[in-house]
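User: Second chain of the day. Same drill as before.
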Amino acid sequence: MPIRAVVILVLLMIVPAIALAAQQSPTGITHTFLALGAETYVIHPDGNMSWKYPADTRDGWVLPDGHFLLAITKSDEFPGGGAVELTPEGKTIWRYMGSQSEVNTVQAVGNDRYLLSEAGPKPRLLELDREGKIVVEVPLHAQTRDTHLQTRMARKLKNGNYLVPQLLDKVVREYSPAGKIVWEAKTPEEPKEAWPFTAIRLENGNTLVTCTHGKLIIEFDRNAKSVWTLDNNDLPQPLLVDPCGAQRLPNGNTVITSYGQSTPGAVKLLEVTPDKKLAWTYSDQKNHGIHEFQILDTNGKSLDETPMK
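Assistant: Same format as last time:
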């Protein structure tokens, strides 16, 4: 059994069940997932939590060794935001204090390095080593009048470049390590505030983008042409409310979070097939949505591939 799955099973007894959390699927799909945002936890199909972190988070991962890597929302402890790597028992083994206004994303990128984004007067990506030394710094061509709406789920790609959604600029850009823009896709003027939040480079070279307040998901091809979209007109009811985080699963389905859905009992996560059929939903009684997430298993089978999120 993979280390990640063992860690999750061992921790099942630690945290009591979430009242009235529910997963529904017409075909019997269930998921265990890491939820990030106003609360940070791992939850299982039966509603039990197996892990919880006592801070707001922006982004995060369960790493292959079972550790948790989290981007921390700005707070008294992290006035410029930050990032931490924790053992399942909660021991901090790596920590970064943001030097500007926010740290919105973090990613482990191999060779004991971490990628993170810093929002502020000098928006940038940083690759850091375990000692906190800056190994790569990439200045971002982003507006500075609203630093909160500069960037979100920045990711390092297999080719060594970086994919960066830039919200208020309404563009997803691919940067080289030298800071050159080598590709971009613009989100539409309508609907209003179709701000790109998550951008996922798919195996076929396309790029999947969530567009927050626009309540829209777009897949762009290599030429930045829209080849697939999802909005509330495609769903049996309007479930997309500020779609922020997303993950493309190995079976081709896409899971999306409606971060703006704060009503207790409402659908907070949904999964759709490539032909836009609703395959799975998650709801709970919390009065806030889920900002980002990571699907960890499906029907009890661990997803050991590198998550596309």
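The radius of gyration is 18 Å.

User: Great, on to the next one.
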